[in-house]
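ARCHIVE CARD
Drawer: 12
Card no.: 0347
Subject: one protein chain, sequence and derived structure
Cross-reference: see card 0346
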Amino acid sequence: MYTLFAINCSDWEDADLPLTYEFAYESFNKESVFFIGDTPFINSVYLPMGHEKSDFNLKVKIRVVDRLGAATTLRVLVKVSECYTSKQICVRLFQSK
C-alpha cells in the first residue's frame, strides 16, 4: 500500500544561498532518498505503508543544505496503515522527532 503525500519547506531561510533539499524515508533500516534538488517542495509523492511492528510509522527525513555545506535535518514520523473501506486513505501525521 502506498499513500500520496506533499512536503513543503518553502519558508526556510539561510544567508548562504542556494539551498538544496533532500527528502528520504527509512524502511527495513535502509534509507531511500526520493528527492534531491533546489525546489523546497514536492506536491505529490507516494510513500509506502509503515511496518506493523512499529504501529505503521514510517520515518521521513528532511535535510536542508546551504552552499557552504551546513545542514539541518528534521525527522518526522508519518503513520500510514491499511484501510478496510474501499477508496479510503488512512494517513496521520505524527510529531516531529
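Annotation on reverse: The chain has no helices and seven strands. The two ends are 24 Å apart (CA to CA).
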